[in-house]
């Protein structure tokens, strides 16, 4: 069992789209409940040439230090063995879009818990025809999004355990180190924000991390909230930290935590 829980903010995106140099993906994550049996993901070729993508499953294990470890095969909590993808390869003209359908076939007596795999869009290299000698490099890019199914799902039990001021050793800027834990075994998703009271006595947001998930592999993590460029920490007074749900958790406040600035 892992000692810590991963903070996994996979992507920081606008309008629920994952933008790369050549590809737009929407949504950037898929979450199934027990009543839902299918979902759609839209991909758009935003480059100026034809692109071909192979659509496959990838198994990734969230790491305590952040990021993922890619696994060679599915594990007990992988979602991919109970799914079907259509199509499994797409070729798109510039500006063209395609919908990929994910269908779930849940086995009988499926154990309670959360199942996750990552949908991988692997760009295949275009054929390059050239009579000039030299080295030709075709980079193969891939982009993935998490897909989650919850059997007998429960609301994640996320707690903010501690908040500390830390200083970046390079630029000397202060940020807020927020320690979070989850004990229910189901992933969360939402926004982690910091609020301060301004000179007019009103609360204003001074920092935020969006698209923040805590996954079941580990049980503790520390998120670092960097202040907005136009905001400063007050010399004294309360700071409130909130972890608020998004998408299927919209309207839920997982936890809040207040502490006093003294510096």
Automatic annotation (TrEMBL):
UniProt keyword Signal present: yes
Domain Pili assembly chaperone N-terminal: 25-150
Matching SUPFAM superfamilies: PapD-like
Signal peptide annotation: 1-21
InterPro entries linked to this entry: Ig-like_fold, PapD-like_sf, Periplasmic_pilus_chap, Pili_assmbl_chaperone_N
Keywords assigned by UniProt, alphabetized: Signal
Name of the featured protein: Fimbria/pilus periplasmic chaperone
Protein's organism: Pseudoalteromonas shioyasakiensis
């Amino acid at each position: 069992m892992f000692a810590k829980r991963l903070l996994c903010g996979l992507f920081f995106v606008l309008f629920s789209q994952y933008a790369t140099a050549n590809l737009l993906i929407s949504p950037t994550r898929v979450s199934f409940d027990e009543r839902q049996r299918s979902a759609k993901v839209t991909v758009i070729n935003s480059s100026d040439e034809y692109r071909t993508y192979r659509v496959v499953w990838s198994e990734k294990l969230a790491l305590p230090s952040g990021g993922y470890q890619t696994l060679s095969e599915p594990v007990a909590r992988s979602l991919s063995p109970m799914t079907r993808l259509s199509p499994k390869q797409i070729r798109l003209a510039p500006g063209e879009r395609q919908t990929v359908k994910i269908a779930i076939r849940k086995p009988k007596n499926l154990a309670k818990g959360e199942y996750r795999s990552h949908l991988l869009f692997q760009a295949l290299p275009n054929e390059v025809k050239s009579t000039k000698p030299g080295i030709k490099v075709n980079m193969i890019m891939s982009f993935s999004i998490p897909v989650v199914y919850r059997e007998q799902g429960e609301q994640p039990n996320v707690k903010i355990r501690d908040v500390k001021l830390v200083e970046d050793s390079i630029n000397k800027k202060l940020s807020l180190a927020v320690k979070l834990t989850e004990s229910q075994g189901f992933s969360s998703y939402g926004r982690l924000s910091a609020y301060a009271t301004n000179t007019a006595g009103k609360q204003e947001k001074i920092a935020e991390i969006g698209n923040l998930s805590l996954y079941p592999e580990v049980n503790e993590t520390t998120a670092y909230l960097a202040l907005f460029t136009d905001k400063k920490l007050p010399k004294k007074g309360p700071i409130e930290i909130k972890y608020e749900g998004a998408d299927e958790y919209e309207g839920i406040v997982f936890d809040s935590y207040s502490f006093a600035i003294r510096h």
